[in-house]
Amino acid sequence: MAAGLLLLVCAGAVLYSAKAQDLYNELPDSYKKGVDLSLEQLSSHAGVHHHFRFLRSLEKSDIESGFGVKYLYHHFYLKPTRCAKGTADSNPQRCPFRNDRPLMDCAVCYKTVNDQMEMDPKPYVHCIQKPRLTEDNGNFVIYGWKPVWTSDTWGLDTVRLCMQEDCNLVMYNQCDTPRWNTGTNGPSRNMCHFQLTDDGKLVLYREQKEIWSSTSSNGIKK
């Protein structure tokens, strides 16, 4: 039974990876060029160690300027694979996606003439790593290029993270027992929110005042 379940999981992962490859293949050639450029620049970054592949588009737009000239914008996700950086093979079976690293959030803007990318003006490429908030082992982790902060709750039975009305950020187990929190509970009438910054810092606010930050605390285990 366990072997059968493992086979189903593996098959599902391959199908998911193959579907993403199909989404790339369905892109117009002019949009593929932007994705390829972002992958090329990403591969040149010293902090990147894995091969990435296109996952899905979030937004696409183009403006026609006449005489075959277009200005394209494409917002999309790239996902890391189990292959090393520099791998030329994009076969989803040989380079399957990995789920233990965050996505890359990319936006590109560039000019094409007759569907060929122009280098003047220089294409704009901006990719940031989306911080990942949780792991399957009960740990609450924020990733940059590598893990930058952890709640140090590895091995606990936590299953969900909740921002409560009293401004306390809490992790619960399946029995709704709190196992970790930020210790920021206060009057529930106050407006509370948290923000995950692009540089991987988690900050809690009550009204507009900062009340907790991952740079100075790992929270409270229970």
Automatic annotation (TrEMBL):
Chain coiled-coil ranges: none
Signal peptide: 1-20
SUPFAM superfamilies: alpha-D-mannose-specific plant lectins, Cystatin/monellin
Transmembrane segments: none
Keywords noted in UniProt: Chemotaxis, Differentiation, Disulfide bond, Inflammatory response, Secreted, Signal
Keyword Disulfide bond: yes
Cross-referenced PANTHER family: RETINOIC ACID RECEPTOR RESPONDER PROTEIN 2
Protein name, UniProt field: Retinoic acid receptor responder protein 2
